[in-house]
Specification:
Layout lengths: L28 E2 L6 E7 L12 E7 L4 E11 L3 E3 L4 E2 L9 E9 L6 E10 L2 E10 L9 E2 L7 E8 L5 E7 L2 E7 L8 E5 L6 E5 L2 E7 L5 E9 L5 E2 L3 E5 L3 E6 L6 E8 L2 E8 L2 E4 L7 E9 L2 E7 L4 E6 L2 E8 L4 E7 L2 E5 L5 E6 L4 E3 L2 E10 L6 E10 L14 E2 L10 E8 L3 E8 L5 E10 L2 E8 L6 E9 L2 E9 L2
Antiparallel strand pairs: 1-33, 2-3, 3-4, 4-5, 4-6, 7-8, 8-9, 9-10, 11-12, 12-13, 13-14, 15-16, 16-17, 17-18, 17-19, 20-21, 21-22, 22-23, 24-27, 25-26, 27-28, 28-29, 30-32, 31-32, 32-33, 34-35, 35-38, 36-37, 36-39, 39-40
Amino acid sequence: MKKMIVLFTALFVPTLCSAQSYTPFGKVDTVTTGECDDSDPALSHIPVFSGNGQTWLVFARNTSITSEIVGKKLISVDTMANWDSMLVPISVTSTPFSQRKPDIAKLSPSRGVFQLAAWEYKKDTAWNIYYSKLIADDSTWSTPQPLTHDTVDNTNVRIRPLTDSTFLILWKRKSAILYSLATPLTCTAPETVSVSTSDSVEFDYADWNLVWTSRDTSGKNIMIRQWLSTYPTLSFSAPDTLFFEQSVFNPQLVWPYGDAVLFETLLNSNREVYLMTGSYAEDVSNDPLADYRNARLFTVPLITKRGDMENNALRTYFSSDVLVMERYTTTDSMLLFFSGSYSDTLRTAGYNRNAKFEPDMHYYSGYEHVLVVWESNRSGRSHIYSRTVSFFIYDVKKEPSYLTSFSLEQNYPNPFNPSTKIQYRIPNAEFVTLKVYDVLGREVATLVNEKKSPGTYEVEWNASAFSSSVYFYRLTSGDYTAVKKLLLLK
């Protein structure tokens, strides 16, 4: 199994922040209120600086007589999230608690921003998957359509952008993981990715890889990873299996890079959260007297910072990580936040659970902000709350300039072996550098390092001398900088 090194600094050592003058954690913001129950929040996965992008929060809303899936737009993010006051209906109302667990994702094809939402809808006696679409220029979501029509349950739907024009939708049906491909016009018929010997299968998908937990034919606990490729056609790799002494649950791939896995296992009758990178797993909860669940880890991506005061050089680095997880004891429950050497405990009446990240960062006045949402019944009803986790990018030459006339395209093919092509565009005569970095931020290749005339260029990187891993390529041209990720699979 491939290995990704994640930098944690002092991430998993809780520290008391009351004596510190600075904290990266913003105040808790109330997103929804009212005489209803709001649950299962999900955030659209969108590039922050796309010119006509939209960020959506979707969730399930229930009253004593109705159930529906609704959406809410994000207007802006600085030290707090600014949400639109209007709720947008996505599904048709039905009987209470018959719609749940939505997911949402976004593409930017040539015809405009395309949003897709999918959720579980209980029709007759079984849960099935329904979906709805939204083109950014339209005012309403499309009429919900069934993706499945089964008499057995279809659950745990996940939506991820696959290409510039296609979504990958995955879900579970008993012991099988299925998928469908969605475009602005159609959804393909369901096909099977993998089948387990046990109905206990739980899965997650992110960043070209699928991870799932179950049991094999002999009853051993297993975690399986499969990689996805779209070149030359859509395919999943052969399963890569790890065996565990105890049951493993709830695998969660790390955002925004899916090479590390968080999972839960039983220890002294309580659940503990482990982080696995490659074949090595580390307990990140370290408290056998409490129950930990639903951990989420956001790895802050590569950021260009002016950090060397002697030669005034720019360097690329991982600034920190954000970990959020639930902690339960016999007397109370809480939501824990960790970032670098900082920690925060959110303890209120009732529960705080089901936290989700938006897997992109928002830049505002020298800070990068990560947005977190979750559900809580602190007010007696279940509602959605949010907060930002902020990172100060100091001594930057200029604030980032995200000009639509510049572009850095995703490499193709991706994943690749051993060569891939990268296309970029510059509007002015500029000195251009295009470099490749490993996951530690170390430069491993220079593809372009010269003055270029305005135009569109394509460069090839032959990585035959490098090992399988996630890499990053960064284009710098004047004040413009862009970073994208590529995946080498051998």
